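HOLO CASE FILE
Compound: erythose-4-phosphate
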Amino acid sequence: MKFFVDTADIDAIRELNELGMVDGVTTNPSLIAKSGRDFKEVAAEICAMIAGPVSTETVALDAEGMIAEGRELAKIAENIAIKVPLTWEGLKACKVLSGEGRMVNVTLCFSANQALLAAKAGATFISPFVGRLDDLNIDGMELIAEIRQIYDNYVFSTEILTASVRTANHMKEAALLGADVATAPPAVIKAMASHVLTDKGLDAFLKDWEKTGQKIL
Ligand code: E4P
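Model generated. Tokens follow.
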């Protein structure tokens, strides 16, 4: 499973990238606002650092506006993926922009039917938001399983990009279900390394090592 980082924080992306943990980046208007930076500037910096797709989002509500914005965003760098919302207008924009050979990430997906439409419209990525479904007591991971089955049934090449990831468990479940990609905040990716028994075991080993009075270096 590919790891995308869900942030516009350059330092956090750099740190994970140096460990080989970054296959791409996703941003959205909320993350850009949080960064407090000019969106073109920050997107260009991320694109220069990361070889994989960097999603930046359109904000128009009509297809024509999304297409114009998408073409403008695509000028930032070769590896820009244009994010459009999963609305009827967004699907129209997806069809046009993907027809021009651009990467399109159809975002704000909350149902298998929406994902089916996005694949038919030529989306490169479909972004089902698992965390926001969980917030409503709807199992977000069930949606990933449904989309996986539908895409496999008809051999759609659209990649399932598990989004709105809130926990390390979401990452594990996405990988078990065969999601192509999961995008997560840096803290969630780092949390995947943590286990209470690792900490406990390390503590015991270090105490016993101290008793030996030996040194490695
Ligand atoms: C990524 O593409 C999405 O915009 C992001 O994962 C949304 O996450 P949130 O529901 O935590 O805001």
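CASE NOTES: DSSP finds eleven helices and eight strands in the chain. The chain has a mean pLDDT of 98.
CLOSED: yes
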